[in-house]
Amino acid sequence: xxxxxxxxxxxxxxxxxxxxxxxxxxxxxxx
Length: 31
Known about the structure:
By secondary structure, this protein is an all-alpha fold. It has 2 helices and no strands.
């Protein structure tokens, strides 16, 4: 996740991406 680290809102994005990506049920839900 290089883009997340480069963006100032990395923490916010990571907080939203983490739970969505971790879910093995609907990984495409965020997209």
